[in-house]
């Protein structure tokens, strides 16, 4: 809607859902195929790269060699192409770019970053490489560190924050949610609509307003306990069992709350969806028949 359907070229190595195919140009592109990316940039006269290819935290720990190729070699490809063709480039970073030595509550933009996952290491590398290309070559590199992103139209993608998406599907399908994190594990989160708007607003911000190339952004922080309580307003009979797995050790090294005051001050970032509003949006999308229990009691 914003840039014109034929001006946004979607790409992936996966076949998209039919409605995506019908929404505008969609091409096969492997982030590891430099020549193919170069051809797409020239043939489609690309001016911005929005780079989202990566193995997330949990899946990356189970396939470190592939995570290094996709998250690091893939990043090098798009940075080099953005430099060669003078493109503006967005590269997402994450709360996972911090580690146990970072302040966790809250975590500021600038502090020690010694992440303990290959995903986090690759994202710190992305931040540092992008800022190097900015200072050395004047490239318009921009990065936002995202919290866990919650969306209804995509399945969980191998992240540590996936539990906050899975709870909705489990509540509606089986009424039984198995949570792999302890009930008191607080993590920063954001609804997908706020995430996509943050990218657009950040990329459209005049460079003169940016005091940094990489900013924290967030909307809320919550624990499994807190989202369970909110989901039970729609599915009161929801059964929850805690089966802690290796992702707990990752979550225990991550920020509990994100300080995104610089993004709010420098380029006007503000979130719109909090936990109750996100749950309402998720149920409206996944199963409109599930209205909040409070309304039924009325
Ligand atoms: C993950 N959802 O859990 C991703 C994210 C906030 C972390 O980068 O790995």
UniProtKB/TrEMBL annotation:
<dbReference type="GO" id="GO:0006567">
    <property type="term" value="P:L-threonine catabolic process"/>
</dbReference>
<dbReference type="GO" id="GO:0008743">
    <property type="term" value="F:L-threonine 3-dehydrogenase activity"/>
</dbReference>
<feature type="domain" description="NAD-dependent epimerase/dehydratase">
    <location>
        <begin position="25"/>
        <end position="217"/>
    </location>
</feature>
<comment type="similarity">
    <text>Belongs to the NAD(P)-dependent epimerase/dehydratase family.</text>
</comment>
<dbReference type="InterPro" id="IPR001509">
    <property type="entry name" value="Epimerase_deHydtase"/>
</dbReference>
<comment type="function">
    <text>Catalyzes the NAD(+)-dependent oxidation of L-threonine to 2-amino-3-ketobutyrate, mediating L-threonine catabolism.</text>
</comment>
<dbReference type="InterPro" id="IPR036291">
    <property type="entry name" value="NAD(P)-bd_dom_sf"/>
</dbReference>
<comment type="pathway">
    <text>Amino-acid degradation; L-threonine degradation via oxydo-reductase pathway; glycine from L-threonine: step 1/2.</text>
</comment>
<dbReference type="Pfam" id="PF01370">
    <property type="entry name" value="Epimerase"/>
</dbReference>
<dbReference type="InterPro" id="IPR051225">
    <property type="entry name" value="NAD(P)_epim/dehydratase"/>
</dbReference>
<protein>
    <recommendedName>
        <fullName>L-threonine 3-dehydrogenase, mitochondrial</fullName>
        <ecNumber>1.1.1.103</ecNumber>
    </recommendedName>
</protein>
């Amino acid at each position: 809607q914003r840039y014109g359907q034929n001006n946004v070229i979607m790409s992936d190595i996966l076949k998209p859902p039919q409605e995506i195919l019908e929404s505008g140009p969609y091409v096969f592109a492997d982030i590891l195929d430099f020549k193919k990316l170069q051809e797409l940039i020239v043939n489609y006269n690309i001016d911005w790269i929005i780079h989202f290819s990566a193995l997330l935290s949990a899946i990356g720990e189970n396939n470190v060699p592939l995570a290094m190729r996709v998250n690091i070699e893939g990043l090098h490809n798009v940075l080099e192409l953005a430099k060669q063709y003078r493109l503006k480039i967005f590269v997402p970073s994450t709360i996972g770019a911090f580690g146990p030595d970072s302040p966790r509550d809250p975590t500021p933009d600038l502090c020690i970053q010694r992440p303990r996952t290959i995903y986090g290491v690759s994202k710190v590398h992305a931040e540092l490489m992008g800022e190097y290309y900015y200072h050395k070559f004047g490239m318009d590199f921009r990065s936002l560190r995202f919290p866990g992103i919650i969306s209804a139209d995509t399945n969980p993608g191998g992240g540590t924050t996936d539990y906050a998406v899975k709870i909705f599907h489990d509540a509606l399908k089986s009424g039984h949610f198995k949570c792999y994190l302890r009930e008191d594990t607080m993590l920063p989160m954001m609804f997908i609509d706020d995430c996509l708007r943050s990218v657009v607003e950040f990329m459209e911000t005049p460079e003169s307003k940016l005091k940094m190339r990489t900013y924290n952004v967030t909307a809320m922080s919550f624990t499994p306990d807190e989202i369970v309580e909110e989901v039970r307003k729609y599915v009161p009979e929801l059964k929850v069992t805690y089966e802690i797995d290796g992702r707990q050790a990752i979550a225990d090294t991550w920020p509990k709350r994100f300080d995104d005051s610089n993004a709010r001050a420098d380029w006007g970032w503000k979130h719109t969806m909090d936990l109750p509003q996100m749950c309402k949006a998720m149920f409206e999308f996944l199963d409109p028949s599930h209205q909040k229990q409070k309304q039924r009691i009325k």
